[in-house]
Specification:
This protein is mostly helical. It contains 5 helices and no strands.
């Protein structure tokens, strides 16, 4: 890796960590999961003979950006809820967990997608028991989303 990229990555990481304070790790974990999902998705597409499409890439990009928007909203809620409650004189004694919940949800979804991509890329090299658990986890998340809409 060239020094330029090392410096750029260091500056970007430092800025994110300073800006988000305690949330830097959340953002880094989500970013790592998103990047790994994109990489394994490209590997899967090539491995199964599915072509790469700029339309799919553009749609995927905006879906990934919505994940970061959701995480940013969670961070906003954490700060806003704490500030509003404190201004109202209400002390609940715990930090609000919105960003952590959103972060966990994103990472779980991305992990399921990464596992599916790896399984579809080469089913013989991916443990079947993990593939089954990923399928069950995906179904549970989808069922939970449907329950929330009612």
């Amino acid at each position: 890796m060239h020094d330029y990229y090392k410096w750029a990555l260091s500056i970007a990481s430092g800025t994110v960590a300073a800006f988000f304070g305690q949330y830097g790790l959340f953002v880094a974990l989500v970013a790592a999961a998103v990047v790994l999902d994109v990489v394994t998705g490209i590997i899967k597409a090539k491995a199964i003979g599915e072509g790469l499409s700029s339309k799919k890439a553009r749609q995927g990009f905006w879906r990934k950006m919505s994940l970061f928007a959701a995480l940013t909203f969670g961070i906003f809620l954490d700060y806003a809820a704490a500030h509003v409650l404190l201004s109202a004189g209400v002390v609940i004694g715990v930090e609000t967990p919105f960003a952590l919940i959103i972060c966990a949800y994103i990472i779980i979804n991305e992990a399921i997608s990464i596992g599916e991509n790896l399984y579809l890329s080469n089913p013989d090299s991916f443990p079947k028991w993990i593939a089954k658990r990923l399928k069950v986890a995906r179904e549970e998340l989808e069922r939970g989303q449907e329950d929330g809409k009612e």
